[in-house]
Amino acid sequence: MAYVSPLETRIARKTTKAIVDFNLIEDGDRIMVGLSGGKDSWALMQTLDQLRRRAPITFSLVAVTVDSGYKDFRHDRIASTCKERGWELHIEHTSIGDVIDDVLDSNATPCSLCARLRRGVLYRLADQMGATKIALGHHMDDFIETLLLSLFFGGALRAMPARLVSDNGEHVVIRPLAYVSEDDARLYAKACGLPIIGCCCPACGDLSLQRQRVKRLIFDLDREHPGVKQSMLKALSNVKTRHLLDRRLNPSGELRDSVALRHEDEDASPDLIQISS
């Protein structure tokens, strides 16, 4: 069965590469797809459904939509679209929006807390539905943006893994679109006629948020230097730990002690002693 367009072929190949590179899907898996109704989650659901039909292994899909309780959220359109395409869907209605309003200050950014609360709901539902993996629609741009956010504002050199095992070891979160660009995800969702549903959170689209500022920075850089995003993504899998300042990556205590003894025995200046790599 041939893919319907070069765009679908490209996304399928990149998703397959991520699945193979990081062992994201295994035979017999029941994959629970976090379906928010946004372009990325629609693209993920459509892509995994296409791959499921062609894969040499057997796995099943169930979409889960977490309704945060915001007024006018069109979960009915998500439900009708999934029904039309024969996709299994569960909608979980919550009061996450009210919880965020009660806990956070009016000028605080709710995205981080919202993500944690939604993740907790997904973990609970995965247990109830017998899901072996939880698939999220983070794409290549999300990985890059998270890297720069952590670097600029978090004081850490990190992004997000394509495969994450929860702290208690009971859940596995996968991100099959790790190699797919945001532009391709957007184009694919549109080409497939999938309705883009906003979450109705008042913070969505706020260009003052740090992530939106980083997104604009990357856009400008990529426009001036085409290929910079691919270079940044490659950097995430090409880490030179010996060239960082994390003291936890220094030589072991025994090696440092042996070097110190060598300095004493040779009665030489440390500046003249070289440690071979």
Reported for the largest beta sheet, the result is: 6 strands, mixed
Order of helices and strands: HEHEHEHHEHEEHHHH
Which class of secondary structure composition applies to the elements?
A: alpha/beta
What is the correct CATH architecture of the largest domain? 3-Layer(aba) Sandwich
Number of domains: 2
Q: What share of residues is helical?
A: 40-55%
Mean pLDDT rating: 85
CATH class value of the largest domain: Alpha Beta
- Total helical elements: 10
Strand portion, in percent? 5-15%
User: How many distinct beta strands?
Assistant: 6
What integer value in Å does the Rg equal?
23 Å
Strand order of the largest sheet: 3-2-1-4-6-5
Alpha carbon gap, first and last residue: 52 Å
According to CATH, the homologous superfamily of the largest domain is HUPs
What is the fold-level CATH name, i.e. the topology of the largest domain?
Answer: Rossmann fold
Q: Indicate the low-confidence ranges by residue numbers.
A: 268-277
| Overall spatial form | globular
Secondary structure blueprint with pairings:
Layout: H1 6-22, E1 30-34, H2 39-54, E2 60-67, H3 75-85, E3 89-93, H4 96-103, H5 111-129, E4 133-135, H6 140-154, E5 163-165, E6 172-174, H7 182-191, H8 210-224, H9 228-235, H10 253-266
Parallel strand pairs: 1-2, 1-4, 2-3, 4-6
Antiparallel strand pairs: 5-6
Describe the structure.
- The chain is of the alpha/beta class and 277 residues long.
- The protein has 2 domains: 6-235, 3-Layer(aba) Sandwich (Rossmann fold); 244-272.
- It is 48% helix and 10% strand.
- The chain has 10 helices and 6 strands.
- It has helices at residues 6-22, 39-54, 75-85, 96-103, 111-129, 140-154, 182-191, 210-224, 228-235, 253-266, and strands at 30-34, 60-67, 89-93, 133-135, 163-165, 172-174.
- Strands 3-2-1-4-6-5 form a 6-stranded mixed β-sheet, with helices on both faces.
- The radius of gyration is 23 Å and the shape is globular.
- The N and C termini lie far apart (52 Å).
